[in-house]
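User: Second chain of the day. Same drill as before.
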Amino acid sequence: MSETQKNEVKIELVRVGKAAFEATNTDGFSVTLDGPEKIGGEGKGMRPMQLFLASLAGCASMDAVMILEKQKQTIESYRVSVTGVRADAVPAVYESVHMRFELSGEISEKKLERAVSLSVEKYCSVASMLLPDVNLTFEAALV
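Assistant: Same format as last time:
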């Protein structure tokens, strides 16, 4: 697999179970996705909508950490909890998503709030894909 255009992203997906699939990127990194038991899922991996929330948390976190490090903040621990509420319809898209960032270390509360705000509202591509249709909220706390 190779990237053919500058901004092109390519993933190859292969079936590895009744409702399980392995997605591999061009660098050879992979993740397993699996469906619910009612369609034959066997607990081999995250469900696609769970993986989407993980992607959101990862994207926002990479930006937030980079901003905080540029501001000479020392992060000792970092955790993000993401909760999504899906529509009771088909497709069951997210209607709302809430992210809670919890950090410890030598971090200014003001700088933490600003870094998370910039990350979620400006820099995170995954978050931008949700807006304006999804009610995306977030909070940041020093713990």
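The chain has three helices and six strands.

User: Great, on to the next one.
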